[in-house]
Known about the structure:
The protein is an all-alpha fold. It has a domain at 16-250. It has 17 helices and four strands. The protein has helices spanning 9-12, 19-38, 41-66, 74-90, 95-114, 123-142, 144-147, 168-191, 193-203, 205-210, 215-241, 251-264, 269-290, 295-298, 303-318, 322-336, 353-356, and strands at 153-154, 159-160, 163-164, 243-244. Strands 1-4 form a two-stranded antiparallel sheet. A two-stranded antiparallel ribbon has the order 2-3. A hairpin with a 2-residue loop joins β2 (159-160) and β3. α4 runs parallel beside α6 (123-142) and α12 packs parallel to α16. It is globular and about 65 Å long.
Amino acid sequence: MRFVFKTAYDQDIDLARHNGQRFWYGLLLLAALAAPWVLPEYWLAQLTFIYIYATVGVGLMLLAGFTGQFSIGHAAFMGVGAYAEAYLTALGWPFPLAMATAVALSGAVGVVVGLPALRVKGLYLGIATLSFGFIVEEVLARWESVTGGNAGRSVVAPAIGEWKISGSENFYLLCLVCVTLSTLLVLNLLRSPTGRAFVAMRDSEISAQSMGITLSIYKSMSFAISAALAGLGGALYAHKMQFISPEQFSIIQSIDLLLMVVVGGLGSVHGAFLGAAFLIGMPQLISAAKDILPPAIGQAAGLQGVVYGAILIAFVMLEPMGMYGRWLKIRTWLQLYPFYRRGMFKRQKTFQKSDRLK
Length: 358
C-alpha cells in the first residue's frame, strides 16, 4: 500500500494526494481529449451525455452527499436552466451570456427552494422538493409563450456571434470543459472552510451550530450551488437534444438523478461520474439483454424500472457506499493480498442518535 507522509498543511488540502494520482488523472484527461478522434459518433454522444449528467450529479452530490440535504426535485432545476437557455439563445443572446444567465437563474431558484430546508429535513424536505418539481413541471406546461407548453420548444445551436459550436466533436469538448470546471469548483469548495461547514452540518447540525456555523446561510448556499450546476447541465442537455418538453424534467428524471448519486456512491465526487456512467450505460445493457432473454421477460413492459429498483435495493442493502465504495474495497484487497484480513470489510454496528449520547 502507498503511505503518504505529510509535512505541510498544503499537502493535506492538495487536490491530488500523491504523484501517482496526478499521473492517472492526467492520463484520463488526455484520453478524454483524444476521444473525438478515436471513438465513433455514437459512443462519443453517449460520453457527452455522461458529462452532462455528471455535471448535474456533482451538484447533487454536494447537496446530498456532503451537506446531507435530501432532494427529489432536482430535475426541476435542470428544466429551469434548459428553458432559460433555449429562450435566451432564441432571442439572439451570445451563448456564454445565455448560459451564465441560465445558471444564475437556476441558482436563484435554488435559494428559494432551499428556504424550506431551514425548518424541515429528512423525509419532509424530500416532500417539499418533490412538490417544487411538480410545480415547475406544471409551469413549464402552462407558460406557452415562453416554453411552448406541452408541444415543446426547439433549441438553436450554441453560437458566439457568427461562430457556431456545431458538430458532435466541438460540443463534446464544450461539455468536457464544463464538467471539468464544475468538478474543480466543487473540489476546491470542499477544501475551503465553506466545504468543511457543509460536512459538519451533514454529520451533526447541533455540533455545527455549537462551532458557530449559521445553518440558514450554508444550507441556502448549498442549494444555490447545487441548483446552479443542475442548471448548467440542463442548458447543455437542451443543446444536445435540440428539443425540450416538460416531460423531460418530470419526477422520473429526478428519481433517476437521485439513483445516480446513490448507486455511484454518496459522499464522493468520483461517485457522481460512476453514477452518470451507470445511468447512461444501463439502458444500453438492458436493450442488449432483451435479445437474449425469453420474450415473456425481454418484451415485458416496465423491465427497465424493475431492473433499476432491484439494483437500488441491492446497493442500499449490500453496498451503501455505492460503486466507488466497492472499488475502494477491491483496491484495498488487491493492495493487501495475500495479507488481507477476512473480516476487514464487515460493516460496523450502527447506533441510533440517542445511543451516541450515552
